[in-house]
Every structure is written in structure tokens, then in C-alpha cells.
Design a protein that fits this description.
The protein has helices at 2-6, 13-63, and strands at residues 70-74, 79-91, 94-105, 110-118. It is of the alpha+beta class. It has a 4-stranded antiparallel sheet, with helices on one face. A hairpin with a 2-residue loop joins strand 2 and strand 3 (94-105). The longest helix has 51 residues, at 13-63. It is rod-shaped and about 95 Å long.
């Protein structure tokens, strides 16, 4: 009779605690993965907005007769841009401008830098 009572099927308290511990660790790992993925998605969207902003700014400059020495502006997507140009002389009559475009957030965190070269004169100050 006593052996029949000891043969009850079920889980011991230790087994239940171990199962909950394993479940808790799995949930913590999943939560961290989701948080990291969300952060990467935000960063990716920010970089995509910076790419579009840089394309627009650089296209405007390429369409102009001269390259501005410096310029800056804001974008509705809460990004700021700052442009600076330096003149490079390779040959006597072929101007070359090195254009640097910095994209940053409103808080000042740099998102991307872009550098290109244009065969145009830089505006005189």
C-alpha cells in the first residue's frame, strides 16, 4: 500500500523550479534579441533617411553653376545637414571641389558623412 503512494506520477518541486528557470532564461534572451532588432531597425531607417537627404542636397549642388563653400539645413525627418567644400587644383584650368556632407540628428549625433568630388568652381566669399 505504501509503495503505491510513492509511485504517484507528476513533477517534483525541483523539476518545476528548474523548468521555470529555463523558461525565464529563454524569455530574457528573446527579450534582448527583440530589443536589439528594434534598435537595428531604427538605425536602418535613420540611415535610409540620411541617404535620401544626402542625395537631394548633392543633386541640388550638382545642378548649380558653382559649389557653395559651406551650407546647412534641416529636414522634416529631424535630421540636419552641414556641407563644406574645399578647392583642389590639379591642373591650371580644371577646378575640382571636394564636397563633404555631414548628416546628424537634432541632438547632434552623427548619422553619416559623405564625400564627393565635383569639377566645378567653389563660390567666392
Amino acid at each position: 500500500m505504501q509503495n503505491e503512494l510513492l509511485d504517484d506520477e507528476g513533477f517534483t518541486l525541483i523539476e518545476v523550479i528548474v523548468a521555470f528557470a529555463i523558461l525565464a532564461l529563454a524569455l530574457i534572451a528573446t527579450n534582448q534579441s527583440v530589443a536589439m532588432a528594434t534598435s537595428q531597425i531604427r538605425r536602418s531607417e535613420e540611415i535610409q533617411q540620411a541617404e535620401m537627404l544626402a542625395q537631394g542636397v548633392l543633386i541640388e549642388i550638382m545642378l548649380g553653376a558653382t559649389v557653395p563653400r559651406s551650407a546647412s539645413g534641416d529636414d522634416p525627418s529631424e535630421l540636419r545637414w552641414k556641407l563644406s567644400s574645399t578647392e583642389l587644383r590639379i591642373a591650371a584650368n580644371s577646378p575640382l571641389a571636394r564636397v563633404t556632407l555631414e548628416i546628424s540628428t537634432d541632438s547632434g549625433r552623427k548619422v553619416r558623412d559623405y564625400v564627393t568630388f565635383l569639377s566645378r568652381e567653389i563660390e567666392r566669399e
